[in-house]
Design brief:
alpha/beta; 5-stranded parallel sheet; globular; 4-stranded antiparallel sheet; 12 strands; 8 helices; Rossmann fold; 21% strand; 230 residues; Arc Repressor Mutant, subunit A
Length: 230
Amino acid sequence: MSEKILIVEDEPDILDLISYNLKQAGFSVVPVETGEEAIEVAEREQLALIVLDLMLPGIDGLEVCRLLKQRVESKSIPVLMLTARTEEVDRIVGLELGADDYLVKPFSPRELVLRIRAILRRAHGDEVKEDAQIEIGTLFIDPVGHRVEIGGDFVELTATEFRLLLTLVQRRGRVQSREELLNVVWGYEYSGYSRTVDTHVRRLREKIGEVADWVETVRGVGYRFRREAN
C-alpha cells in the first residue's frame, strides 16, 4: 500500500503540480487548500508526511504546524514546509515548531520528491547502520528501537532529531561540519541550508537537557559530541 501524503497548498496550479509528481513517484495524496482542512485530515487519516505551505488563508502554515505538533494524533507526522517568504526567520520558526525540513518556492518537483523520500527514510529508521545500544553516562540510545533515555527518563525526539543525535554520538569526538550533517542526517547535499542544522541542534539541546553541553559548537566549522562526556 502506498504511503499517504497530505498536501496543504492554496494555489491550485502548485497543488496540482505537487499532486501529480507525488503520484508519479508512487505516493497516495490528499490535497487540501486550507489549514483548517489540514488539521481535520491529520486527525482522521493515517499520514506518512505533510507538505505544508506557509502562506495559507485563515490559519497560516506556522500556526498549522504548531497545532499539529501539539496534538497526539498528529505530532509524530513529519512536516515538510514550502515557503515563498524570503525572510529566514520564518523558516527558522517553522523548524523550531517541529517541521523536519523546508523548500523555498520556486522549487524543483524532483528535489521535493527527493526531500520527501529522505524524510521518510529517517522516519522509518532505514538510514541507521549501527544497531548496538549506546550508554554514555546518563544517556542511553537504542538505535533499533529509536529510543533515547536520560537518567532513565524517556526523551521524545523527532526522527530527524534522533538521527542527528545518533550521528553525533556515533562520531563522538570528531567535528561534523554542517555540510556533512546535511548529507548524512537529511540526505542531501549542502546548498545554503546550514541554518536547518543549527535550528535542529538548538532544538535537540533543549530536549536532552542535562547532557545538552555534550553537544559542542565548533565555531566556523560545525558540531561535535564531546569525547570525554560521562
